[in-house]
Amino acid sequence: MSDRSLTEVRSEIPRFARTDSLFVTAYFFTGAERMDYRKLFEFDFWANSETLASLKTMPDGVEKARKAMCHIIGAQQIWLSRFASPAPPSAQPWPDLTLEECGAAIEDLRQRWRGILEGLTSEKLGSDLTYLSLKGTENKTPVQDVLMHLILHSAYHRGQVASAVREAGGKPAPTDYTVYLRSSKK
Questions:
Q1: Same domain flag for 99 and 167
Q2: pLDDT one-digit tens code per residue, 14-60
Q3: pTM summary value
């Protein structure tokens, strides 16, 4: 833990962000070694699978939700390719996948990200990932920031899927982190 108190840290966090527990956790635990990205990614893939399962119960009319699910997968594929090579990724940000293809892609991504995350040391987490944007611009971003971006990006778009499922009369999957923790202990 940091030598600073949570109260001190909270006073520095913008008011609009104070209720975001992931933001507070990421801000307070600044040491990369303190953040268990493997656990966060396991949660992320669990939540994506649960979200997809709720989407599969809906009629074909929830196109907006399917597209958001595809985008979660596309973004994961793009960033995964950036870890392998700084060249522009061949993956698309908005792939057109069936729900069955989404399920297979989520499992494939889970296995491939596990391989990347297992090899990450604290030193590597703090190092920059050099990559080309989709527009061809070279960028450098700390690896730990890329990983946090992916977790938050997926959560944002899972919210869109949940809203679309609810609007269509369905029941969105409960994908809170605490639900994951309880289900993973069974």
A1: yes
A2: 544 444 444 444 544 445 445 789 999 999 999 999 999 999 998 77
A3: 0.79
- For residue 113, the tally of other CB atoms under 10 A from its CB is 22
Cα distance between residue 134 and residue 118, in whole Å: 27
Task: Say yes or no: 59 and 100 in one domain.
Answer: yes
Of 177, 178, 182, 123, nearest to 151 by C-alpha is 177
| CA dist., res. 113 & res. 94, Å (int) | 20
| Neighbouring residues of 5: CB distance < 8 A, sequence distance ≥ 6 | none
User: CB-based contacts of 95: which residues, under 8 Å, 6+ apart?
Assistant: 70, 73, 74, 77
pLDDT tens, 80-138? Answer: 999 988 777 788 999 999 999 999 999 999 999 999 999 888 889 889 999 988 888 99
What is the Cα–Cα distance from 82 to 4, expressed in whole angstroms?
A: 35
CATH number at residue 167: 1.20.120.450
